[in-house]
Amino acid sequence: MSSTQTPVERTADVHVTGRRVVATLIDNALLGGLYVLIALAFGSIIELGGTPRWAIPTLTTEMTVILVAVSALYYILMEGYLGQTGGKMLAGIRVVGERSGRPPGAAAATVRTVFRVVDGLFGYLVAFIVVLASPRRQRLGDMAAHTLVVRT
Question: Rounded to a whole number, what is the distance in angstroms from the first to the last CA of the chain?
Fold first, then answer.
């Protein structure tokens, strides 16, 4: 163990990359399910070539903004105050502050969430590569927010 490690890092298992992938897939499925529910609520059945088919509407700008806000709040509130999203709960991991070892709070969770724009590029490939290259298994959002993802 390095002397530069925080007490949390000395006792926490940060080697949870596989679990992070599983948690991301679960969270994306949960948020995708929200989109499907909205599409079902606002979709319609149309006839194409005499065959009835379900038509999913193109979301309005307002609906898109609402979906993005709900997604951001999901991550900010769940990670900020509980340290876990639904996916992280199921995968057995949580987000903690580097020094405190406790849920990071809304400010740090907001930083993590904003960085998802970059970390999420190419289907989260950017985050995956950065996590594998980082000695503390942090994505860019974790580095900026001073958080770790650890096994529960």
Answer: 20
